[in-house]
Amino acid sequence: MPSYQAPIRDMRFVMDEMLDYPAHYARLPSGDDASPDVVSAILEEGARFARDVLLPINQSGDEEGCLLEGGEVKAPNGFKEAYQQYVEGGWPSLAADPAHGGQGLPPSLAMLLSEMICATNLAWGMYPGLSHGAADALKHHGTDEQKATYLTKLVEGVWTGTMCLTEPHCGTDLGLIKTRAVPTDGDAYAITGTKIFISAGEHNLAENIVHLVLAKLPDAPEGSKGISLFVVPKFLPDTQGNVGERNGVTCGSLEHKMGIHGNATCVMNFDGATGYLVGPPNKGLACMFTMMNAARLGVGIQGLGLIEASFQNSLSYARDRLQMRSLSGKQAPEKPADPIIVHPDVRRMLLTQKAFAEGGRMLVLYAAQMLDVVEHGESGEERDHAETLLGLLTPIVKAFLTEVGFESTNEGVQIYGGHGFIKEWGMEQLVRDARITRLYEGTTGIQALDLLGRKVLMSQGESLKVFTKEIHKFCKAEADNPALKEFVEPLAKLNAEWGELTMGVGMKAMQDREEVGAASVDYLMYSGYVTLAYLFARAAKQASASLEGDDKAFYTAKLNTARFYYQRLLPRTKAHAQMIQSGASSLMAISSEDFGLGFEI
């Protein structure tokens, strides 16, 4: 079975030393409760829960899977008991509004817990994971009655939530949905339709499940402008707000998946189910985006957690596994062969995992600061700035971290060799679980279009300038710092090139809109590598200033990891830049009919 120790030392480095979270919390109205003692307790207890409760049921949950009988789904053994411990520990309410039973702590603290959960049991973590997004959607768009009925239960964790978007004939293009909502008595609607790929759509962990469902009213306009959002509970609440009669929503089947076997991914049938409108009619997509954006950050954290899990176990294996001798001579002469960690190519794979884990953690915690400010910032100007930056970073967090997450888990299998390909070591499960992260909550291609098309080009590059100005100021301030020259000089050049590439795509897109789609994925990956370069430069600044302290080994390793990133991973930007500039012509030259020349379809 894989092992796991929460990387608390690295978390504290990023929070306390690099990003100055204590000062950040002090500026938030809700930050007084996030004292150093509270943060330490959350990290330590979260680490214990993940390691001792979730990790032991990860492999067994994958092997056992979920069971559907008579419309009811049973999660793998141990999952329900783990969820009860999660609720009893107060974890669901950590960052929720006290007005609805929450503890009112900054969202960033809940994101730290999420990394630990994703690293130890991704499938289990998906049951409570979407509840936070459902609560956010109801908090921002629900009526007072809906908040009183559903929000406190979701915050407490006694009820869980889902988001029901996708249908058999449409995925991302939600304007094509066929689910209908017909007015009935009072403010109720009869919801009829089928949704697929619904994570945690049916299970036995909580007493009720609150579905947020996209549907169309009878007089709705065509396309995405005609989508409304409805809250549809599994059990209708009674007059006291407790579980009442069963609603007309059932699980038709469970999907047979490549990974995340321990989570119930359901086909959900709504047969005249009673639902209630959330937000204005025909504005459901805008309301659902509150939930979708939270989910996208959450999926990025899933990528991070899987990188960390794969790295920790790969490192342990590489230290123990004996294979061949070092090219420079025996490194362990008392043993029949050297441990594989001495071999440069194994070190390349380990350092790739390590750099993406540490860089990804910096990215998540940097974005988490923006989320804290958006939720709790005192001034409108401060909140607007943070929201612009968070909007730019969200598709990068989601797509970049899941792309490199899949790469990193594959490297884990490679380090184990043949042992990585068999189930008992758990490395192939990480690959299977990681694969879905590049797909759900918007594929990498969709995130890339959101970043380049919607966030950057539609704002005439203003959202990007908010970030590149920050990088420019850092580079200018550290230009004469000899300890950072190896980082600042290449970073400054890439920061300038980022703007030039953006302008180039924008100019081409004025003549041919296909240029945006042709450049988008390479643009997103380029953006991710430059963003991590900026964060590694900031980490190097802090580490180089701390070398004379008591933890020299930690700071030396941090600097060496930053150097590896700059020398071995950051050069990938050159290829992405070239592909961005190559344009759409080679992609669009072959007609759709000619793709299959040479065989019959």
Overview of the structural elements:
The protein is of the alpha+beta class and 601 residues long. The protein has a domain of 126 residues. Helices cover 56% and strands 11% of the residues. The chain is built from 19 helices and eleven strands. Strands 3, 4, 5, 6, 7, 10 and 11 form a seven-stranded mixed beta sheet that branches. A two-stranded antiparallel sheet has the order 1-2. It has a two-stranded antiparallel sheet with strand order 8-9. A hairpin with a 5-residue loop joins strand 8 and strand 9. The longest helix is centred in the middle third of the chain and has 37 residues. The protein starts with 7 loop residues before the first helix and ends in a 13-residue tail after the last helix. The relative contact order is 0.09. The mean pLDDT is 96.
Helix content range: 55-70%
Major β-sheet annotation: 7 strands, mixed
Q: What class do helices, strands and sheet pairing give?
A: alpha+beta
So what's the overall shape?
globular
Radius of gyration using CA atoms only: 24 Å
Mean pLDDT: 96
Work out the strand percent: 5-15%
Assembly state? single chain
Low-confidence stretches: none
Count of DSSP H/I helices: 19
Number of strands: 11
